[in-house]
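Good morning,

Attaching, inline, the backbone tokens for the sequence recovery test we're adding to the shared suite. The designed sequence is right after.
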């Protein structure tokens, strides 16, 4: 792979804003099984058990919901310098920040829609305390005793006012490969799935029907099995977590899914895409038409209306 491909190693972590910090922390720890790994100011740092870094998710108390930062780890110090130079060349504003727990210098910039993107290389490997030490040395932390026990942060799905502009930026400036997309009859690109890795997607841009910039459709956590997602649905049912749709299987990317709203209002997906990888270096971009999308999800479930309308933060 030649740059820009390969310069971004993987999705690092996401910072979610929540008007109900205690409720959100409770959902991610008690129901999903993330572990708290420190607090600072209005932010709580959480991690999935298989994350080698300090944190996978930051929850920050705020007046409303939404996504603040999406952090991407580069594949080397040199790759970080190359991407920063490209961001500057592309006219994106940016600044260096220090002091993020577990991380070295972080370059904070944004996509054309205004979603904050942060790139970093230096990252401290997590060392579990005695009570969280795993049985095997090739796992960072013991599996959680309670909740779903999600393995990792899997992907972020942004809403964008201009899907084409944002995905072109991610491909050309950050170096991602598009794997699937939706093109409307008008020719407009309505959604595109992009990957930095062999996973079939890491970032997704979906058209925001309100035309608002910088909103979030959902963040997703991967489970080991489909059965974990059925269990998650039961845990959400028993604990008054709003289930929006699923469990079912997506047609696009074939991901087995469940969508819920965490107490702060942000949509969270539990997904099981682990068996599907894109290994082909010449993978042909798959395009779905409006007529194909109208058929609904893989096994015929119609796409729920709120899937097209709910985003965070909410807009009037
Ligand atoms: Fe998703």
């Amino acid at each position: 792979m030649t740059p820009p491909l390969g310069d971004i190693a993987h999705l690092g972590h996401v910072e979610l804003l929540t008007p109900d910090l205690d409720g959100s922390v409770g959902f991610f720890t008690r129901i999903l099984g993330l572990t708290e790994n420190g607090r600072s100011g209005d932010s709580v740092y959480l991690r999935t058990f298989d994350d080698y870094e300090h944190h996978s998710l930051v929850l920050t108390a705020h007046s409303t919901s939404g996504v603040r930062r999406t952090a991407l780890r580069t594949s080397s110090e040199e790759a970080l310098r190359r991407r920063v130079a490209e961001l500057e060349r592309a006219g994106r504003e940016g600044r260096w920040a220090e002091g993020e727990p577990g991380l070295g210098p972080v370059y904070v910039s944004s996509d054309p829609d205004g979603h904050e993107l942060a790139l970093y290389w230096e990252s401290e490997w997590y060392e579990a305390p005695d009570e969280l030490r795993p049985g095997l040395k090739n796992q960072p932390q013991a599996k959680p005793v309670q909740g779903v026990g999600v393995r990792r942060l899997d992907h972020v799905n942004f809403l964008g006012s201009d899907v084409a502009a944002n995905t072109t930026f991610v491909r050309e400036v950050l170096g991602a490969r598009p794997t699937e997309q939706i093109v409307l009859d008008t020719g407009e690109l309505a959604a595109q799935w992009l990957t930095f890795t062999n996973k079939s997607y890491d970032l997704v841009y979906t058209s925001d029907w309100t035309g608002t910039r910088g909103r979030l459709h959902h963040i997703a956590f991967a489970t080991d099995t489909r059965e974990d997602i059925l269990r998650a649905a039961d845990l959400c049912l028993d604990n008054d977590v709003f289930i929006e749709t699923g469990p079912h299987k997506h047609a696009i990317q074939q991901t087995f899914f469940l969508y819920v709203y965490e107490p702060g209002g942000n949509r969270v997906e539990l997904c099981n895409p682990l068996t599907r990888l894109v290994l082909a270096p010449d993978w042909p971009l798959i395009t779905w038409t409006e007529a194909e999308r109208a058929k609904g999800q893989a096994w015929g479930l119609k796409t729920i209306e709120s899937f097209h309308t709910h985003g965070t933060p909410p807009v009037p």
